Automatic annotation (TrEMBL):
It is found in: Membrane. The lineage of its organism: Eukaryota, Fungi, Dikarya, Ascomycota, Saccharomycotina. One of its GO terms (cellular component) is membrane. This is Major facilitator superfamily (MFS) profile domain-containing protein. Pfam families: MFS_1. Residues 32-412 form the Major facilitator superfamily (MFS) profile domain. PANTHER family: MAJOR FACILITATOR SUPERFAMILY (MFS) PROFILE DOMAIN-CONTAINING PROTEIN-RELATED (PTHR11360:SF130), MONOCARBOXYLATE TRANSPORTER (PTHR11360).
Length: 420
């Protein structure tokens, strides 16, 4: 009987998809979803990628260790991913607008309440937990809606949207740095200005998003059939390991430049790291759609990222640090953009995209929670030396690259010239 019910559900899905037609791969409404998702990336990943400026400010203003301060950013990204398990399934079930509006409210509440904070635990609750919950309620649902409109050009669409993460990672740190350190506006009003920017940019998103597929009211919150698919399992493990080490540079590059190189204004490195990410998020996805496929370009980029972080241990000059920031910023941005693009292909049923993407995000969230904190603890235990943290981050990314290769092989076999 269970098999009959599953068969009936699958048949109903196929009939519904046939009635609606295939993804338009463009059109006004389709490209509008790309623009709106670009804004969501700007206000979620952009804020997360720019946490390095807060890492610097809080270590000075609060007198807390780098490891403790990194927990705020780690929890924020952790919840961005973890909440996707629930938010993705609710989106598949037809509750996109409610979930998305709740996410916007929580993001704004977190930012404005952070402006009132003076102690570490208060910032942890507002900027870490509240803002993180809001990020999760907006990010995965918006990505699920975008994927409904594209198939052939999905990687390009996701890449253009993901470029918002680089734009936000450039805009928000510059805004915070200027208002606090240059203009003298102070921390409370700087956060309020940031909140007003987030609110204004979300207005078109609240109006313009258009779910294309009918809601899937039945079905489990966790798609257990995914755990029978080796490509899904290996890919999820790969992204866990990748993100375990990937954010080390985004969190600690500024403090490394200040403490190890003696750089007066590390904000310039963070601007470069995030600024080049605009190109890094778009170009590889165009290459992937036109020639290689997303999987085929993700694997060598993962290996390249691990080699770069290993090489970071030998950097002892300002010029070398600038070079590292440029190259790593390009590669890390490409991995961040290819990750959701490949994640949306980890299901044969488009109606389960939100659920499957949410499951992957849920697993990867624990890497984002623990990775930067482990790196911070290693730095503290080595009396401010970064070598142990660099080796941990680089080795994690390397293992992730190996698992990505296993996922690709499980999907297509040893036919390495196949576009996938």
């Amino acid at each position: 009987m269970a098999e009959n019910r599953l068969g009936d559900e699958a048949g109903a899905v196929e009939k519904a998809d046939a009635a609606i037609g295939p993804p338009p791969d463009g059109g006004f409404v389709g490209w509008l979803q790309v623009v709106l998702t670009h804004i969501v990336f700007l206000n979620t990943w952009g804020v997360a990628n720019g946490y390095g400026i807060f890492q610097q400010y809080y270590t000075q203003a609060l007198g807390e260790s780098a490891s403790n301060i990194s927990w705020v950013g780690s929890v924020q990204i952790f919840l961005l991913f973890l909440v996707g398990v629930v938010a993705g399934r609710l989106t598949d079930g037809g509750y996109f607008r409610i979930v998305f509006a709740l996410g916007v409210f929580l993001q704004l509440l977190g930012i404005f309440m952070t402006s009132l904070c003076t102690k570490y635990w208060q910032i942890f609750l507002t900027q870490g937990i509240c803002l993180g919950l809001g990020n999760g309620c907006t990010f995965v649902p918006s990505l699920a809606i975008l994927s409904q409109y594209f198939k052939k050009y999905r990687a390009v669409a996701v890449g253009l949207a993901a470029a918002g993460g680089a734009v936000g990672g450039l805009v928000y740190p510059v805004l915070v740095n200027w208002l606090i350190f240059k203009d003298g506006l102070g921390f409370p009003w700087t956060l309020r200005v940031m909140g007003f920017v987030v609110f204004a940019t979300y207005i078109p998103c609240l109006i313009g998003y258009r779910p294309r597929l009918p809601p899937r009211k039945t079905g489990p919150w966790i798609d257990m059939t995914a755990f029978k698919e080796l490509p899904f399992i290996f890919f999820t493990m790969s992204m866990f390991l990748n993100f375990w080490g990937l954010y080390f540079a985004f969190f600690f590059l500024g403090t490394f430049a200040r403490d190890q190189i003696g750089m007066a204004e590390p904000i310039h490195l963070l601007m470069i790291l995030n600024g080049v990410g605009v190109v890094g998020r778009i170009v590889p996805n165009i290459v992937a759609d036109k020639w290689t496929g997303s999987f085929n370009i993700l694997i060598p980029l993962s290996f390249s990222a691990s080699i770069l972080v290993y090489s970071w241990a030998a950097v002892d000059s300002l010029g070398g640090l600038y070079a590292f920031s440029i190259i790593y910023g390009l590669i890390a941005a490409a991995l961040q953009a290819l990750f959701p693009a490949v994640s949306t292909t980890m299901t044969p049923d488009p109606n389960r995209t939100g659920t499957r993407v949410g499951m992957i995000m849920g697993f990867v969230s624990f890497a984002n929670l623990t990775g930067p904190a482990i790196c911070g603890a290693l730095i503290n235990n080595q009396n401010g030396d970064y070598l142990g943290a660099q080796m941990f981050a680089a080795s994690s990314i390397l293992l992730g690259a190996i698992m990505a290769l296993a996922a690709r092989t499980a999907r297509t076999g040893f036919t390495f010239l196949t576009k996938v």
